[in-house]
What does this fold into?
Amino acid sequence: MVQFGPLAVNRVPFVSYYAKIRGWPYVIAWCHRIAGFFLIAYLWFHIYTLLSLSSPTFYNATMKIYQCSLFSILEWGLGFPVIFHALNGGRLILYESFESRNDESMIQWVSGLSFVYMLLLGLLMMLGNQSVSPVFYWLTMLVASLVLAYAVALKVWKIRHSMPWRAQRISGAFLLIMVPAHLLFMHLNPSVGKEANIVIMRMQHWFIKSVDLGLVVVALYHAGYGLISLLRDYVSFRILRKTLAALIVLVILIFAWAGIRLIFII
It folds into this structure.
């Protein structure tokens, strides 16, 4: 029988050592942060790649390079930090706001659902012949995401904490569905992200523009707040912390401007 969560990796030397010394919540917290760094890098890289849509020929040539076996494996591998960060973020929200404190059970659920998601993503990538209506797909995902974000908002609004902290939790609930759904969508419609004319046609739809705008704004806010939170935890020198925080805000604003501008000019 396959076991997920801590029981499945208690023989991994590096992981099991810190699990015994600091506990599993410590290990999972660091895995969550590392996955977050991967996702921030991917988000910025994704926006940068889409900026080349201004030259469809160049975009198509770039996508051909990304279709080689190595990039396909890397793209599949990206699914793990995506789904792990999303589901573990959901676990943290349940822990903080809904008083679900059974860590071992929740970690096993995170591990198990991540495994299922990776299998599904790999299957879709190998088939490469699926098709779904972009408007119907994103309408379904958007409604589910908004309902989940609203449910979390009702809870965190009662907690005495700062507005940015509350917005971070609400944005996390929204992205919990939207980001893994985005990666799946790219392989439900294989040509949707690899042919410039199809990408442009999809992004010109007013509803898709709205969804893309929401994703860019919410994802960049979530990323920026997460990075600044790490500074508060690990940088004690006040001037350095404020300088780095200002730099993070500047970079986030630059990418937000680039992403929003791209959405409106397509």
Summary: The mean pLDDT is 87. Residues 134 and 202 are 8 Å apart (CA to CA). The longest helix spans residues 69-97. The chain has one domain: 5-265.
